Amino acid sequence: MRRRRLLLVKIALRNVRRHARRSALTAAAMIVGLGLMVMSRALATGAHEGWVQSAVRLGSGHITIQGKGYQESSRLADRLAAHHAGQVKEILARPGTAERVVGLVGRLTVEALAGSATSAVPVNVMGVDATAEAAFSELIDKLAEGRYLEAGDRLHAFIGVGLAERLDIGLGRRLILTAQDGAGDIVGQLVRVVGLFRTGVQEIDEALVHIPRETAASWLGVGDDLTSVGVLLGSSRDVDPVLQALRDGLDEPAIEILGWREALPELDAAVRLDDYGDHLFHGILLTIVALAIVNTILMSVLYRTREFGVLGALGLTRRETGLVVFSEGVFLTTISGMIGAAAGLGITWLLFRNGLDLSFALDSDLSMSGVLIDPVIVPEFHVDQVIRSIIYVAVIGVLSSLYPAWYATRIDLAEAVKVET
Predict the structure, then answer these.
(1) Percent helix, strand, coil in the chain (nearest 5)?
(2) Assign residue 296 a region: left if phi > 0, alpha if psi is -120 to 50, beta otherwise?
(3) What is the pTM of this model?
(4) For the stretch 161-192, what's the b/e string if a residue is b when 16 or more beta carbons lie within 10 angstroms of its beta carbon?
(5) Cβ-contact 109, 80 below 8 angstroms
(6) pLDDT in tens, 205-226
(7) Which helix (H) or strand (E) is 64 found in, with range?
(8) Beta strand pairing status for 186-197 and 156-160?
(9) pLDDT tens digits for 13-53?
(10) Which residues contact 25 (CB under 8 A, 6 or more apart)?
(11) 65: confidence class by pLDDT, cuts 50, 70, 90
(12) What's the DSSP call for residue 348?
């Protein structure tokens, strides 16, 4: 039985070699399909990671720890107690978690009214630790004039150019921030502008104000309490294990721990929508590949009717004839899968390792869901994604070989030997 199976494999391999043109056409369809899948997946993953990195470095990080209800209310009454912030730092310093953490910041944020001699506009005031924020936030890289906050600053503010224009102020000018303090009273704080930033995102440039955290704490009367702790990770793929570590260590009903998907729902929706479009493209691509495989192998079966008749006369059963055809498809799928994966990785690396520059087609200030879109997409390669792509093509190749193999078993061998070639 084993020798007979080996004989069927040899026949299938011989047919793959003998019908070189047919084999090349079938293999080409799978190689192109898999190569395009690997390339598009690497570019899509790189684009999504770029969106997330841009958002979390301008926002609250990959993970946000805050008081229960603060996400909805944005009120100081729902702030995070100082000792809880200390517990977060302790958990993140543990082995297995510390290696994934790139930055950690504690912030005291309040909705306020910023006023100058000519105007007043609603803003989001963020009390920050200047040293930690400089290593965490991308906002410092968006400096337009002046400087960022420094250790030792007290009555200083770092604001967007859009806000400066709306208030008709510039560097060195003063503005008054008015908000409700921790006790619910209306209080004001005078600050002086030391720097301006420009992100290109209107809602940030016109509404965000950074001041020293000590100044914010004194102004709002909340002591060492915070509204949130932001955690910056090396990659968005590190979010789930760090989230689990924090949730296991902080079993407190008064605390909410949010990943970037929960903290930035609009960005999450945009990434998911783009993923759905990518899956649709891959589905269409795999359908085309499947039809090409079915067409090529089925045509080879129709043209080899006499050959199957001869094989039957030599002792092959209908089932074994179908197995020969099926084995041909499996061999082609295996070889094409390896070549296609290598081609997709190689071409993507050679052409786009420094990024795919789409600045010719995209506005440099293009934003989506409050995130500035970088026109240069740097591909990201993940082994699991490549393996999944290979599995998809392998499954398509195997399934596409079933019908031609079944058709081969239906050939009347007595009539097949009469066919003229």
Answers:
(1) 55, 20, 25
(2) alpha
(3) 0.77
(4) bbbbebbebeeeeebebebbebeeeeeebebe
(5) no
(6) 999 999 999 999 999 999 999 9
(7) strand 63-67
(8) parallel
(9) 777 777 777 778 778 877 888 888 888 888 888 888 888 88
(10) 292, 296
(11) very high
(12) H
| Interhelix angle 2-18/20-58, nearest 10 degrees | 90
For residue 67, the tally of other CB atoms under 10 A from its CB is: 23
Other beta carbons within 10 Å of 127 = 24
Count CB atoms within 10 A of the CB of residue 195.
Answer: 20
Strand, coil or helix: 357: strand
CB atoms within 10 A of CB 154: 12
**Tokens standing for 420?**
């003229």
Q: What is the 3-state secondary structure (H, E, C) of 305-323?
A: HHHHHHHHHCCCCHHHHHH
Contact 55, 204 (CB under 8 A): no
Instruction: Choose from 24-38, 88-102, 275-289 the range with maximum mean pLDDT.
Output: 88-102
